[in-house]
Amino acid sequence: MKAVAQVLENIVGVAGVCAWDTLTETERSPILQATPSSQSITYLVYPNTPEELAAVMLCADQNRWRVLPCGRKSKLHWGGLVDAVNLVISTERLNRLIDHAIGDLTITAEAGKKFSDVQNLLGQSGQFLAIDPHYPDQATLGGIISTADTRALRHRYHSVRDMILGISFVRSDGQLVKAGGRVVKNVAGYDLMKLLTGAYGTLGIITQVTLRVYPLPQASQTVVLSGQPDAIAQAAQTFLNSALTPTAIEVLSTQVMADLNLGTEIGLLIQFQTIFESVKEQAARSLEVGSALGLSSQLYPETDEATLWKQLRERMMGVSPNDAIVCKIGVKPSEAIAVLTQIEQLAKNSGAVIHLGSGVGELVLEGAMTKTFMIQELRSLCQNAGGYLSVLQAPIPFKQQIDVWGYAGNALDLMQKIKTQFDPNSLLSPRRFVGGI
Fold first, then answer.
1. What is the pLDDT of residue 326?
2. Mean pLDDT calculated for residue range 222-231
3. Is residue 81, in this structure, part of any structural domain at all?
4. Where's the FAD-binding PCMH-type domain (predicted)?
């Protein structure tokens, strides 16, 4: 143990190596949510530079140490449980701003940079990252990319991987790799930016990213419509087929609507963000659509809607992994409202939100006593609607009983081959990803 510590301290310094038995309960807790056993964990390591991280991974590769990468540990409880790991490596100290090209609408920063810090910096120049991750006050850029974590804003701005212009990462053998912006060519024929997005740290540890940014909108308003499912479905189809340009359209289950004091029926949240005149006109048109269909409607101006969206985020993710099960779901957008209605029939008091443009959403099942057969029924429901259900967070004993990912596609062999090429000894986040990869 002392010899291992000495090797690591020679790389990152004494302050960058923390023995497991010296960590506080607060420091240990998020790590313990990612693995059923901590007996093999020896050290939590904080590299200060990409080069130090590469040296630590080279050492891990030479000694066959299994590694759990993380940023600020805000989403370690997501995804599959990792096999016994020896090191936890945090990118928290890789938090430097490399470049902000205001005129080119790009920003380059290290992976451990906090999302909230980046937004504050960009806001000073009238810009923002068009990503709305869970735990925005703690999430790092690397963690957001590794978990493909964005929510309502994907309706207008698409997914996380569409924001990435360049990326750097460390492979399991300690090699530093770059792809995309500021690089002449890609590596090994792979689109590395897409491969690393949502890979949960199984292919490499991200060190730096270049992201596309956008001008801050001049104004913002949100319209809330509620009513019977058939009428909501008609309204949703109208918005999707119209010339309106909402930033986000969310379908909320009746339980979520009630919890937010928005009514007792299924609902739609439609957000508009652009110049003031356009926002006002589009919000008025949305209210007309709702009125024509007999829906109840509310208009939230900018001063109130920020609170509304924050409350929605907290309602869906402000639960302990020991007290609730949170799933990521996906269905065909045309099936979203029908699926939401069926979910509520199968799982009483569940809360669900679906991002209408993509069909991706979140489902919260209150109470840790949810049975595994309930997950199977809900998964079948989503799969029959052309989608999927994966468990993001749940108590460890529950995750041990089920297939967290529930992958039903035909690309598992290909994913395993890619994993083998990038991490032949399965040192990075072992078994955390689909199919035990």
1. 94
2. 98
3. yes
4. 36-216
pLDDT bracket for residue 75 (50, 70, 90): very high
Pairing of strands 296-300, 360-366: unpaired
Q: Do residues 304 and 266 both lie within one domain?
A: yes
Q: How far apart are CA 356 and CA 210, in angstroms?
A: 28
Q: Please give the tally of structural domains in the chain.
A: 4
Of 315, 348, 374, which marks where a domain is finished? Answer: 315
In the Cβ-directed half-sphere of 276, how many Cα atoms lie within 13 Å?
Answer: 2
Tell me: do 148 and 225 sit in the same domain.
no
Residue whose token pair is 């957008």: 333
Phi-psi region of 94 (alpha: psi -120 to 50; beta: other; left: phi over 0): beta
Classify residue 212 as exposed, middle or buried by CB count within 10 Å of its CB (0-12, 13-18, 19+).
middle
**Token digits of residue 22:** 């010296």
- Our measurement of the distance from residue 53's CA atom to the centroid of its chain's CA atoms, rounded to an integer in Å, reads 23
Over the stretch 254-295, which tens digit does the pLDDT of each residue have? Answer: 999 999 999 999 999 999 999 999 999 999 999 999 999 999
**DSSP one-letter code for 65:** -
> Are 168 and 104 within one domain?
yes
- Quote the pLDDT of residue 3: 82
Q: Say if residues 108 and 166 touch (Cβ distance below 8 Å).
A: yes
Q: Is 232 helix (H, G, I), strand (E, B) or coil?
A: helix
Task: Tell the residue number behind the tokens 């109840």, with chain if given.
Answer: 296
| Same domain, yes or no: 102 and 196 | yes
If asked whether residues 207 and 255 sit together in one domain, one would say no
Mind listing the pLDDT tens digit for each residue in 3-53? 888 999 999 999 999 999 999 999 999 999 999 888 899 999 999 999 999
Average pLDDT, the chain: 93
Say if 199 falls within a structural domain: yes
Determine the Cα angle at 116 with ends 113 and 121, to 5°.
85
206 vs 157: CA distance, rounded Å: 22
Would you say the pTM of this structure is higher than 0.85?
Answer: yes
- The answer for residues whose C-beta is within 8 angstroms of residue 323's C-beta and 6 or more apart is 366, 367, 368
What's the confidence (pLDDT) of residue 38?
Answer: 83
pLDDT for res 186: 43
Q: What CATH number is attached to the domain comprising 370?
A: 3.30.70.260
Task: Extract the tokens encoding 258.
Answer: 């009630």
Q: What DSSP element (H or E) covers 43?
A: strand 43-45
Domain that holds residue 373: 319-399
